[in-house]
Design a protein that fits this description.
heterodimer, A: mainly alpha, MetI-like fold, two-stranded antiparallel sheet, 2 strands, globular, B: alpha+beta, Rossmann fold, OB fold (Dihydrolipoamide Acetyltransferase, E2P), six-stranded mixed sheet, five-stranded antiparallel sheet, 8 helices, 20 strands, about 30% strand, elongated, P-loop_NTPase (chain B), transport (chain B)
């Protein structure tokens, strides 16, 4: 009878440490690739000077005010484009996820794979090919103009529609997948129970399926809205001077104007704005309710 | 090939137990999944079921898993469409009517409570779909929650309740709609024994209070015997016997029913003589299975049985008396050796091995009335009254080869 306690005593420290050891890689990852860069950026945004003479840490907060005053148009535009793309993704993605979850039967994984198939091609190349498709005299608009169905100066590229469309296209799977996961988890017997309690198809969807899928919608909106608002590839390739997003400005500040503090300040402004937007969104939707359903 | 004539007697049609026409009628109902499901060997999950369930009756569908009882219930609810036959709810043919337009409600085995709604909202769900006025919804939900003793839990989420409480929410959610019939699919299966027993009485009380027809699916014979007005015992997609609990228990129609409900002893042999009404049982035709060496089983003669025909007889363990000497006269008597004695509190169970090798179970009360309380290895004589020997109908014909016309036309 003495062996089991002895063994337990020897094993206890390791067993107690095991959870911490297991999360350690995660913490190291976050520290190295999130916390450290953020601190570097924060320090950078509070420096003054120029590229030739070098930057010095002066804790000059004015950079933020200047950046906001100069680029608030692009900041607001980014949120609008990101929001519009998110709405498009939701309107297209929810029915797709619903169909795969409830109607695709045993071919579910095939359709999920098809959904992810474009990811095997580079983001930039996929966006660039939209540039080809939508070109002013390209494969779509060219023939239509030739037939006189569209005026000669009609264009899609360089308009907000092209940028928002590109964003929606690129981030659609980020909406479909979490919504699909939420719908997949809905117990089919709940649908039967709703039907048994006199709910037709519309009521079953509105009263049971939709509320239970909200956690997925919540995650999908975050996963779409945050990167879409911060994106610069779509605006750079499909947009024009009037559709510049904040991501483009930050990129230009860094690599063209070499204004590191200004670029860093803009990055923090974007991050802060997105955090506030997400917070307001979570409040409006009632996160606790959403998370409660998710945790069932 | 002759279709299988059901061993079970036709459903009781006496108007005493089913007053103004049945609440639910199943007429030769068949469900064939097309052979790619469990039970594919049978060709069909339900192979021609006829049932009449009376208004206000507590009716149980009892059988082992895969016997077709849940499929039958789901066809009544409308989640499955029968591939043959008719389902009548109060005389109206329900085939093709979707579940949301049927005036029955189902209590799911897993309860299927809406996790995002409070207890009160769960219960109000059906009433809201029927656009019942708000005030009335509130009153009816409130009263129903009092009936199931959950009034103080109205604002909780289902997840915050215990299994028994969730079960009562599921019951309330269905009953509040005052359906013409309530269908229950093993509703107590997930509860522990103590809770299950108290819920059995609770269900019975609620059913008496609301006076709604209950159709109750269970594989637990004790549960069915406790609660039901009548029981349909199902096996292999067919109904083997329909009757009140006492009748199903004491007069099993088939070997399956005898074996499935309670402990049962089955003896088989050939009919020695088909003597008419000799001895004590004047009027009743009795027959004898001669087991040799002075042993015999006396039984009420099944119709059409002739001398020499094979017969199976069942006798319930508690009907058998143990004695030290062979009883005389035209009564059943078998000699055996006690192999095991199990003390069960109110009674003792004896496993007795007969000379022919059959093992018989005997229950004797421990109230001091038993004539003999043998120990292991003792030789004893088993006897019982002729009325307690039940000849069994032969087992239903084996499933016909899977085909489009598998069910028996009649």
């Amino acid at each position: 009878m003495s062996r089991p306690p002895a063994r337990r005593a020897r094993r206890r420290p390791v067993a107690a440490l095991a959870p911490y050891l297991m999360v350690l890689p995660g913490w190291l990852w976050l520290a190295a690739f999130f916390v450290a860069p953020v601190l570097v950026m924060l320090s950078l945004s509070l420096q003054t000077g120029d590229f030739i003479d070098g930057f010095r840490q002066t804790f000059h907060v004015g950079t933020y005010g200047d950046a906001l005053a100069t680029y608030h148009t692009q900041l607001v535009r980014s949120l609008l484009y990101g929001g519009a793309a998110t709405v498009c993704c939701l309107l297209i993605g929810y029915p797709v996820a619903y169909w795969i979850a409830f109607r695709a039967g045993r071919h579910k994984s095939v359709y999920l794979f098809l959904l992810l198939l474009p990811f095997f091609v580079s983001f930039v190349i996929r966006t660039q090919s939209w540039n080809v498709v939508l070109a002013d005299n390209g494969v779509v608009l060219g023939p239509l103009k030739h037939l006189g169905l569209l005026p000669g100066d009609f264009h899609v590229l360089a308009t907000p529609y092209a940028v928002i469309g590109g964003l929606a296209y690129n981030f659609l799977p980020f909406m479909v997948l979490p919504v699909y996961v939420a719908l997949e988890r809905v117990d089919p017997r709940l649908l039967e129970a709703a039907a048994d309690l006199y709910a037709g198809r519309a009521a079953t969807f509105g009263r049971v399926v939709l509320p239970l899928s909200l956690p997925g919608v919540f995650a999908g909106v975050l996963l779409t809205f945050v990167p879409a608002s911060a994106d610069y590839v779509n605006a750079a390739i499909l947009g024009g001077p009037s559709t510049t997003m904040i991501g483009n400005i930050i990129q230009t500040e860094y690599f063209t104007n070499l204004d590191y503090p200004g670029a860093a300040a803009l990055s923090f402004l974007l991050m802060g704005t997105l955090l506030i937007a997400v917070f307001l969104y979570a409040r409006a939707l009632g996160t606790e309710d959403v998370l409660e359903v998710a945790a069932r | 090939m002759a279709p299988d004539t059901l061993a079970a007697p036709p459903p009781a049609h006496d108007t005493a137990t089913t007053p103004p026409g049945p609440a639910i009628s199943l007429v030769d109902v068949v469900k064939d999944y097309g052979g790619d499901r469990k039970g594919a060997a049978n060709g069909a999950a339900v192979r021609g079921v006829d049932l009449d369930i009376g208004e206000g009756e507590f009716f149980s569908l009892l059988g082992p898993s895969g016997c077709g009882k849940t499929t039958t219930l789901r066809m009544i609810a409308g989640f499955e469409e029968p591939t043959g036959g008719r389902i009548l709810l109060h005389g109206r043919d329900m085939v093709g009517v979707p579940p949301d337009q049927r005036d029955v409600n189902l209590v799911f085995q897993s309860y299927a409570l809406f996790p995002h709604l409070s207890v009160a909202d769960n219960v109000a769900f059906g009433l809201r779909r029927h656009r019942v006025p708000k005030g009335e919804i509130h009153d009816r939900v409130d009263r129903m929650l009092h009936t199931v003793e959950l009034a103080d839990k109205a604002d909780r989420r289902p997840r915050q309740l215990s299994g028994g409480q969730q079960q009562r929410v599921a019951l309330a959610r269905a009953l509040v709609n005052r359906p013409r019939a309530l269908l229950l699919d093993e509703p107590l299966g997930a509860l522990d024994l103590k809770l299950r027993q108290s819920m059995q009485l609770e269900l019975k009380r609620i059913q008496r209070e609301v006076g709604i027809t209950f159709v109750y699916v269970t594989h637990d014979q004790a549960e069915a015997l406790t609660m039901s007005d009548r029981i349909a015992v199902m096996n292999g997609g067919l109904v083997e016997q329909v009757g009140p609990p006492r009748e199903v228990y004491e007069r099993p129609a088939t070997a399956f029913v005898a074996g499935f409900i309670g402990t049962s002893n089955v003896l088989s042999g050939r009919l020695a003589d088909s003597g008419t009404g000799s001895g004590a049982e004047a009027g009743a035709r009795t027959g004898v299975l001669d087991l040799g060496d002075g042993q015999q089983v006396v039984l009420p003669l099944p119709e059409g049985a002739a001398a020499g025909s094979p017969v199976e007889v069942t006798v319930r363990p508690e009907k058998i008396t143990l004695g030290a000497a062979p009883p005389t006269g035209r009564v059943s008597r078998i000699r055996g050796t006690v192999e095991e004695v199990v003390y069960l509190g109110t009674s003792s169970s004896y496993a007795v091995r007969t000379a022919t090798g059959t093992e018989l179970t005997v229950f004797q009360p421990n109230d001091g009335t038993a004539a003999l309380t043998p120990g292991r290895g003792d030789t004893v004589w088993l006897t019982w009254a002729t009325a307690h020997s039940y000849p069994l109908a032969p087992a239903p014909a084996p499933a016909p080869a899977p085909g489009p016309d598998a069910p028996a036309p009649r």
